[in-house]
Every structure is written in structure tokens, then in C-alpha cells.
Amino acid sequence: MTADALTDVAGLRVGHATRTGGGWLTGTTVVLAPEGGAVAAVDVRGGGPGTKETDALDPRNLVQRAEAIVLTGGSAYGLDAASGVMAWLEERGRGVRVGPDPAHVVPVVPAACVFDLGRGGDFRARPDAATGRAAVEAAAASEHGGPVPQGCVGAGTGAVAGQLKGGIGTASTVLESGITVAALVVANAAGSVTDPETGVLYGELFQGRVRHPEPEVHEAALRRLARTAERNGVPPLNTTLAVVATDAGLSKAQAQKLAGTAHDGIARAVRPVHLLSDGDTVFTLATGARPLDAANPLALNEVLAAGADLVTRAIVRAVRAAAPVDGPGGAWPSYGELYGEH
């Protein structure tokens, strides 16, 4: 029995810290690798990224493994959440050893942020080191292979997908080779996730699971969205983040290739994508429990294809799981509120 989530990659755990009310609508999500870390890479396609430690993941550079990945709200301010995760890891002696004492470590904790400033009403209500610590503690306390909460939690708390409420989504699959591939996405796109002519989610068009809303339902949804757009004013900055993970044994270069092709999964579910106002970033983690078939130079292909497909499915799940928000920072209906469970 699988959770159909990132945690189906054995050893990975996910924790959320969520802040709502009193001007807050934000949070942080941490993907915690097994002790000793996992091979990690990144690919950044958006024109306005906010990241930390991504250069360390370049295959040409020294660092091979990351202990955790931080996804956070709060724009660049929220990157401070990674400090709380680093402190937690340091206390446990987890990180790159840099001195004679086993406690002399530097944890490698790449991070990326989404823009959600002011969506709860208070521009200064954003994640910090304490939020990051709370998220990594939640990950450490979670059950191995357990379910991952989706929707308006963690880094997806204040997420917006076009004019709809966004959030966190996750999905996984086991390939014929026995390799597990999974994705976790923070859907916070500037582009739309719905076809303007029908209201169908782009990601569901790609998946072939299309149930068209009734025309009158779609027309009512468009009227509602027009009203909320007028109230909200200028569209805010955005960013879609993803972590694609596998138990395959990948090099850093192979992991970077996986991060790059996984962006195709965003492009299938969001249009337009990778704009100047987006900071779209995909991380990859490979635990190495299952070696690729060394006799087949194209063995990586099935992992690459699955990564992109799972990102699309995770975006659909994020939008489907999101709850509407109507508060001092703005109003964002949910897809379910507008279109139901068609």
C-alpha cells in the first residue's frame, strides 16, 4: 500500500509548518532526506527566482548530497526558514564534515521561496527560522511512508494559481523496473491552470481525465473570477516549486537532467509558464537504493518521463485540494468551490 506521495520514496519524510489568521497566510514545507543525505540537483526556469544554496548543487561542484530541501512562503524573506532547518541538523551532527570534531558539520539545505507576501493581510507576516525548525521537526516526527497533507498547508498556505487558490500537491508511481518516482509541488503560478474556454484543468486535459463543467457553471465561475480579480487589483508575483524524488541511483548530472525535464510537467499544467514574474524551480533527490540498469544507456528515460508526468499530476492535486480564501489580503476562490467535483 502506497501513500501516492513523495514519501513513497523510502527514507524521505515531509513536514509542514502552517501559519494562518491574524494577518498570516503562509508557511514552510521541508523534505527531509535519510541521514547521510541524498544526491541532489536543481533546475531554475523562472525569471524571478528566490533560492539558497542552489549553486552547491551544480554537478561541477563539491557537494554531492543534501540533508533537506526547504520550500517556503515569504518570498526572499522566507528563505530564513532554512536557517532553522540547518540548526536542527547541526544539533544532530548531520551535514558535510569540515573539522576534526564530529560536531564540525555544515548541513547542505537548499531552499526556494514562493511569493505570498501580504496575502493574509500583513506584509510582514512571513516564515522565519522558527518556522523552518517547526517544519523539519514535523518531518522528523512523521511516519515513514506516511501520507502527506495537501492543499493549503506549509509552503502552499498562501499559494495562488492564476486567479484560483493554489497549494501543495503530491503524487508517486512505481515503474516497471521497480524504481519509485514521486513529486511534491507548490502550485503558485502566475499563469492559469484552467482552460479559459471550458474551465477544465490543463493538467487533467493532459492526463486524459476530462469531465467538462456545464457551460452555465463555467460562465458563473468566470463572472466570480472577474469580480475577485477587480477586488484584488494588480496580480501579485508568483512561483511554482517542485521536488522530484526517486530511489534510483543517479549521479548529480543525471539528477540535474531529471530536474530539467520535470519542468515539462509544469508547462503541461500551467499556461503561460516560466514568466519573469515566476521563480519556477525544481529540485531532485535520489536516494540510490535501486541502481539503474548499467547495460542500458537509456535506462534513465523512464525516470525522466515519470518525473514530468508526476509534476503535472501533483499540480492538479494541489488545485483540487485547495480551500478558498477571502480575507484582508484578498479573495481567491478554489477550483472545487467554482466547479464542484465534476
Could you please describe the fold and organization of this structure?
The chain has 342 residues and is of the alpha+beta class. Helix content is 27%, strand content 25%. It is built from seven helices and 17 strands. The strands form five sheets. Strands 5-3-15-14-13-12 form a six-stranded mixed sheet. Helix 5 links the parallel strand 14 (241-249) and strand 15 (281-291). Helix 1 packs across helix 2 (129-141) and helix 5 crosses helix 6. It is globular. The two termini are 27 Å apart. Belongs to the peptidase S58 family.
Q: How are the elements arranged and paired?
A:
Layout (H helix, E strand, L loop, with lengths): L12 E9 L2 E9 L5 E7 L6 E2 L12 E2 L1 E5 L8 H11 L4 E2 L7 E2 L4 E3 L15 H13 L18 E2 L2 E2 L1 E8 L5 E8 L14 H6 L7 H18 L8 E9 L2 H18 L11 E11 L9 H21 L3 E3 L2 E3 L2 H5 L3
How many helix segments?
A: 7
Rg of Cα set: 19 Å
Major sheet details: 6 strands, mixed
Strand fraction band? 25-35%
* Count of strand segments: 17
Write out the strand line-up for the largest beta sheet, numbering strands in chain order. Answer: 5-3-15-14-13-12
| Distance N to C terminus | 27 Å
Q: What are the segments in which pLDDT stays under 50 over at least 5 consecutive residues? A: none
Q: What is the approximate shape?
A: globular
Order of helices and strands: EEEEEEHEEEHEEEEHHEHEHEEH
Helix content: 25-40%
| Overall mean confidence score, pLDDT | 95
Quickly give the structural class.
Answer: alpha+beta
Family: Belongs to the peptidase S58 family.
Protein name: P1 family peptidase
